[in-house]
Automatic annotation (TrEMBL):
Protein's organism: Sinobaca qinghaiensis
InterPro entries: ABC_Transporter_SBP (IPR050902), ABC_transptr_periplasmic_BD (IPR002491), Vit_B12_bind_prot (IPR054828)
Lineage of the organism: Bacteria, Bacillati, Bacillota, Bacilli, Bacillales
Keywords recorded for this protein, A-Z: Signal
Signal peptide: none
Pfam families: Peripla_BP_2
Protein name per UniProt: Iron complex transport system substrate-binding protein
Amino acid sequence: MTRIVSLCPSSTETAAYLGLTSNLVGVDSYSDWPAEVNDLPDLGPDLSIDMDAVMELKPDVVLASHSVPGMEKNTQEMDKRGISYVLTSPNTLSDVLEDLMIIGEATGTTEKAEEIIYACRQMMDTYHELASRCEPSRLYWEWWPKPPFTPGGGNWLTEISAMAGAENIFADKEEASVKTTWEEIRERDPDRICLAWVGVPFDKVKPELLKKREGWPSMKAMENGSIDVLPEPLYCRPSPRLFTGLAELAYLLHPDIFPKPLSSDVLLHP
């Protein structure tokens, strides 16, 4: 059996989609899906991985991702120790699917990767077609509140927004992640605000804080009460779970056009 260690949640989730959950022998502290991984050895926060513990687990392969800022620290240490790893660096949905194949090839699960990629592309085609029937809603995505960080045009959330019948108000920025200001967000005046604070539990996100930002109470989204606290794992982790996030968002925005998701995972349990 191939022994796998994962150093970040998106890699852990990708392994699960490939049917490799039982092959995982250790994960980082933030990996929490699927539930079985909570019983595995905890190797520490993704930016402070216990490399001695990794070596003790004798993994055949370690999964790491540059989507986590600072992951270079871990890969440099693995290079020093001669630990074999697969490194991904996704920004777009195409990257996520390519990485699925890369990990599939490295773990002998290419056929499963191809099946998932086909299902994802089919879903993308369907949602693009349904989105063409929508009057786009202008979304502001907030990844971090102070200073505010938001996805730009080079990020998967711009694609997901479009397939959900919406428009990311920072899609004109080429970067995958944009550092902005409360004033610029106010000037762009979104129709809807989506809060998905990276690494912050759902129940700890405080939308009431938005009212304290200068000029924000008069924004269109604020006046209409169009503020959504969304589950960070479905929108901020570049794994196939993003497609469940797409289904949830599309139905939230346009329930008259998009189907209601019938499962907590649209790919594993369509």
